[in-house]
Amino acid sequence: MHQTGDILINGRKETLAFGTSAYVTQDDTLMTTLTVREAVFYSAQLQLPDSMSISEKKERAEMTIREMGLQDSMDTRIGGWSTKGLSGGQKRRVSICIEILTWPKLLFLDEPTSGLDSAASYHVMNRIVKLAHQHGRTIIASIHQPSSEVFELFHNLCLLSYGKTVYFGPISMAEMLFATNGFPCPPLRNPSDHYLRTINKDFDEDIEQGIGSSSTEEIIDTLVKSYKSSEICKQVQHNVLKISQQKRGPLEKKGSQASFITQSIVLTKRSFINMYRDLGYYWLRFAIYIALCLCVGTIFHDIGLTYGSIQARGSMLMFVAAFLTFMAIGGFPSFVEDMKIFGRERLNGHYGVGAFVIGNTISSIPYLCFISLIPGALAYYLVGLQKSFDHFIYFVILLFTSTMLVESIMMTVASVVPNYLMGIITGAGIQGIMILNGGFFRLPDDLPKPFWRYPMYYIAFHKYANQGFYKNEFEGLSFPNNQVGGPPTITGDEVLRSFWQVEMGYSKWIDLVILFGMVVVYRLMFWGIIITVEKIKPLIKDYMAASPKKSSMILENPSSISSQLEML
Which family does the record claim for this protein (predicted)? Predict the structure, then answer.
């Protein structure tokens, strides 16, 4: 699609500042675990300025909920795949509530009445009309099959058919255009239904009175030509030219949104509640971790200090470092849903990428600690690893860090591959490669030097996780030596050097620090990719717009009706 033309704000080319515009998408992307009150109140805390008190923000949120007729559903969860919640129409009203909290100067609504009955549609649109009157706002809506009462609420009407402007002007003059061209609206018929049926050529049949033998395409051409030569079109073009030449003052650049610290705190609270209520985020994973660690603990139970326990210890620790952390990708579908919400809220300028990353990171820490501590303790003590409490704490911290690192990798994958099925496949593939050359299945000295040893072996986090677990367990132990001609015992340090080929030039704490550094790097990569994509997209659009090729803009529903409430 090649776009041409200019978009001017007060006669100037400029980017919309926060609070200037808001867009209610056709799909209701909401956090399903929150109640209506919570969803709107958290959004109010994110959007409204810090100069407003918490009680004022709460009052604004509840007032908006009541205006949308949701007062009886305030404490009902929005609902999703796991729990029944609001109906489709109620979700649509929640989406509208969230975007009108700041009373934006421009409000774009994509089919705001979808899923609503005729009464609810009228009350919702009537409330939006009042918003335009009270605060001098401009409302632009594409609306699906409006009733006659809803249709009469609009001031201006834009009819599009297959990329052509059939009509744009006052809603009261549209009927005259159709009537003068031989397509009058029959008595007692909804004008919007009549207009759409007349210009819809999906079903090219003579279904309207007065059409005769003309095809729908000919009717559209007739109406387009008639409109272009009409006084209404000339007046619209005159108004557009007059507005574009006015050169009013620039819009206020400084948005009225909350501070970065407030955004981070609110997002942390909201994300923590969502993770607690969403079974698929951590609780299901916790149950699987318990089951896996019980399996590990019983299979390797009371491993002892025999020569054969060297291999068994290494296998058990490798399973924890590789496959137990691998299960962290199980929370990817829930994170993708968070990404959808982030995309919508970021689109409308509710908060920045940095606040989202900080909120998601801090809110996940308690759950990651929980699923690392209890399952880790089961595996650690059932197997009979080193009894020292210090060694156990290091084991848990390393498991926690490795799990957080896998989540960070999946965040980076989500920024590139937003589809959860493709994302899981991609993340599993990345982890499989890292596990393969992490130093267990093929010892480091045996890895092919080009690519697999340098650099992949040092990029794979399993290298540092395995070595940290090995150093924590084998240092300070001694085992009977079954090798002929060797000493009667073999120390843990010798096992690390010769058996596992562990790098002994630094302590286990350095491995832990490197893993923490990788967590930070992957989270920064996620932040950088999101910012880069946001900057590249406009450049691509500008390049496409500058292309010499020209084509009409084909709408998803070519015969849809678009209506505009002019600014009062």
Answer: Belongs to the ABC transporter superfamily. ABCG family. Eye pigment precursor importer (TC 3.A.1.204) subfamily.
Q: What is the enclosing helix (H) or strand (E) of 143? A: strand 138-143
Q: What is the reported pLDDT for 564? A: 37
The answer, as to whether pTM is greater than 0.90, is no
All domains of the chain in start order, with CATH: 12-205+216-245 (3.40.50.300), 260-541 (no CATH)
- Computed on alpha carbons and rounded to an integer, the radius of gyration of the chain in Å comes to 31
* End-to-end Cα separation, the chain, in angstroms: 34
pLDDT in tens, 271-289: 999 999 998 899 999 999 9
How far is residue 498's CA from residue 239's CA, in Å, rounded to a whole number? 84
DSSP assigned state of 251 = P
524 CA to centre of own chain? 17
Which residues, given as ranges, of the chain have pLDDT below 50? 206-213, 254-255, 548-568
Q: Helices 332-347 and 389-416, interaxial angle, to 10°?
A: 50
The C-alpha angle 428, 432, 433, rounded to 5 degrees, equals 125
> How far is it, in rounded angstroms, from Cα 65 to Cα 61?
6
